[in-house]
């Protein structure tokens, strides 16, 4: 998703290109791209110069969107009803904090973080 985000607006990228540039297995990427396409996060372009593009702007795709597709619900541990109430409350707070960060961080933010161009609001604390 980062590779597609970096390439946004410049046409499709093949999985082979992404694999080669990132030292990943093309087969591994094939397993990831299907669910991302089915979830509407990427589109496939057919043809000799085809490949994949983001279905939405990087600013409109959150890290939570991506993680939910690839990993399932955002929950650090399964919270059991019979757990100690104090532990249960702590895990609920942790889950909610993680969800908030993932839902408020976009693919564009990650690209800016990576490039060193991200300017953090001095009054905002990020985990």
Mind explaining what this structure looks like?
Helix content is 50%, strand content 6%. The protein is mostly helical and 127 residues long. The protein has a domain at 1-61: Winged helix-like DNA-binding domain superfamily/Winged helix DNA-binding domain (Arc Repressor Mutant, subunit A). A hairpin with a 5-residue loop joins β1 (42-45) and β2.
Overview features:
127 residues, mainly alpha, Arc Repressor Mutant, subunit A, two-stranded antiparallel sheet, 6 helices, 6% strand, elongated
Gyration radius from CA atoms, angstroms: 18 Å
Shape: elongated
The CATH architecture of the domain at 1-61 can be named as: Orthogonal Bundle
What is the CATH fold-level name of the domain at 1-61? Arc Repressor Mutant, subunit A
Q: Which parts are unreliable, with pLDDT below 50 for 5 consecutive residues or more? A: none
CATH class term of the domain at 1-61: Mainly Alpha
DSSP strand count: 2
Helix content: 40-55%
| Gap between N and C termini | 21 Å
Give the topology string: H per helix, E per strand. HHHEEHHH
**Largest sheet geometry:** 2 strands, antiparallel
Counting helices, strands and paired strands, the structural category is mainly alpha
Separate helix tally = 6
As laid out across the biggest beta sheet, the strand order is 1-2
CATH superfamily of the domain at 1-61: Winged helix-like DNA-binding domain superfamily/Winged helix DNA-binding domain
Kindly estimate the percentage of residues that lie in beta strands according to DSSP.
5-15%
* Mean of pLDDT: 88
